[in-house]
């Protein structure tokens, strides 16, 4: 009896790790708030602070999204998507808030002939070679 091997779908991560440097006094204040039970840990406090700031500036962000015609969330560009764009003789201006993904099987020549510019506020996932090829088009 032969064993079947199934490839699990690659999981798309719903967050990205960032690193910040804080002064010792700010860090001490955070630790006090955690110790007093206002937050479960440092990360909880920092996430809450960021969300509060995003709420504070929500109208400004909405206006920018409309003005710049940005897509929000996850936008995936498959090889087939880009081949369709190429067949139509068009080029894409990719503008995303969130995560933009260019599929791993997209060759560099296809990316060059179909992607005019990329602006991502968040994260861009693509093969290293495609990112290098499009480096002058990524803003």
TrEMBL record:
SUPFAM superfamilies registered for this protein in UniProt: Ribbon-helix-helix
InterPro entries: RHH_8, Ribbon_hlx_hlx
GO biological process: regulation of DNA-templated transcription
PANTHER family found in the cross-reference section: BLL4998 PROTEIN
Protein's UniProt name: Putative transcriptional regulator, CopG family
Lineage: Bacteria, Pseudomonadati, Pseudomonadota, Alphaproteobacteria, Hyphomicrobiales
């Amino acid at each position: 009896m032969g064993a079947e091997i199934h490839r699990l779908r690659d999981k798309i991560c719903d967050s990205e790790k960032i690193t910040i440097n804080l002064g010792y006094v700010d860090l001490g204040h955070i630790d006090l708030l955690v110790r007093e039970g206002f937050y479960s840990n440092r990360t909880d406090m920092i996430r809450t602070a960021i969300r509060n700031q995003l709420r504070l500036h929500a109208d400004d962000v909405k206006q920018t999204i409309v003005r710049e015609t940005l897509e929000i969330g996850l936008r995936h560009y498959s090889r087939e998507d880009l081949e369709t764009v190429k067949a139509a003789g068009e080029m894409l201006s990719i503008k995303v808030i969130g995560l933009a993904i260019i599929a791993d099987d997209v060759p560099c020549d296809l990316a060059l002939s179909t992607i005019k510019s990329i602006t991502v506020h968040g994260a861009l996932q693509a093969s290293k070679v495609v990112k290098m090829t499009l480096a002058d088009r990524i803003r």
